[in-house]
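From the shared-data thread, chain only:
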Amino acid sequence: APPVHVPTDGLVAWYPLNGTGEDMSELSNHLDMGGTAPTTDRWAIAGGAAAFDGSATMSNLSFDGIGVNESHTVAFWEKHPADEAGVILCQRTGPNTTGNKLHYGYRGANDGPCIDGGCMGMDFYSVQHFTPFTAELETWNHWTLTYNGTTLNSQIFLNGTLVSEEPMAQPWTGSFDEGIVLGAFAQTDDDQSHFI
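Structure, as tokens:
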């Protein structure tokens, strides 16, 4: 079971990432290991975190608990070593169409709100919401990203503080039914993910 500080009401997955991809929630959305390496966590505990080197992944072929366009929250600790694009979590399959392919993570530089790159956010392929600033690198940060499937409102919290809020232009039409991926996924070089 998750530790007592983790809320369990509505919990669909909780990954300690301390050497395995085991989901500690009751839904058992376990992940297969794909090249991650154990590393020191934010408490300086050896092996207490997983390092993703740009090609490493953790994934599964099915994920229970979140339906199409269902409201949800994703929260995680991470330390990002490079100012670059990088997916933290994404929907494993789905067409590259507007509203599909949910991704949470950093994005690279563009002419939109993230000119310098390294902004945190979410996208449903071309429907996007990213912070208008670059996160501090080489520092442990706690991110919480929420999506309301009824109002389409999305929020991004950094270390407990709301830093960005806006409605998504369209609802999420994808699904986690065929699994999720943590880390890199095979599309383009821009999708390589380096983080702990």
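The CA atoms of residues 39 and 175 lie 31 Å apart.
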